Amino acid sequence: MITVILEVYPTETGKGALMALASQLLELINEHPGLVSIERFQSMMDEHRLLSLSFWQSIQDVDSWHQHLKRIVAEDPHHRDLIRHYRLRICKVMLDESGDQARLSHLIES
């Protein structure tokens, strides 16, 4: 599994339009092969920073979405004016574990 962490600093005037674009993209990304889940957050430490966290089945799925996204942005060059700065991290998930309260207690005591 692959994790994609995207941090975005919108321009002063671009935040509303960026959020509208993100809502449109959500419909497309939910239909894209290989997507496991996606979440969007506003940073608690920096009110200007938005975060997107997505999980993918493979790096090929991430690459495919990235190519699709590049075509969308190329269709409307004004999309580039919405973002002041970004940081993209692509990571391989080394451990994916879950459990109930009993399991959580065991992990804390270990």
Report the radius of gyration as a whole number of Å. 17 Å
Structural class: alpha+beta
Overall pLDDT metric: 89
N-to-C CA distance? 26 Å
**Could you say which overall geometry the principal axes of the C-alpha atoms support?**
globular
Assigned CATH architecture: 2-Layer Sandwich
How many DSSP E strands? 4
Note the total helix count.
3
Q: Characterize the largest beta sheet: strand count, sense, and whether it forms a barrel.
A: 4 strands, antiparallel
CATH class, anyone? Alpha Beta
% residues in beta strands: 25-35%
What are the secondary-structure elements, in order, as H or E? EHEEHEH
Strand order, largest beta sheet = 2-3-1-4
Tally of domains: 1
Low-confidence stretches: none
How would you describe this structure to a colleague?
The protein has helices at residues 15-31, 59-75, 101-109, and strands at residues 2-10, 35-42, 50-56, 83-92. It is an alpha+beta fold. It has one domain: Alpha-Beta Plaits (2-Layer Sandwich), CATH 3.30.70.100. The chain has a 4-stranded antiparallel β-sheet with strand order 2-3-1-4. The model has no long low-confidence stretch (mean pLDDT 89). GO terms for molecular function: monooxygenase activity. Keywords: Monooxygenase, Oxidoreductase. Residues 1-93 form the ABM domain.
Task: Map the helices and strands.
Blueprint: E1 2-10, H1 15-31, E2 35-42, E3 50-56, H2 59-75, E4 83-92, H3 101-109
Antiparallel strand pairs: 1-3, 1-4, 2-3
Entry summary:
This protein is α+β, with helices and mostly antiparallel strands.
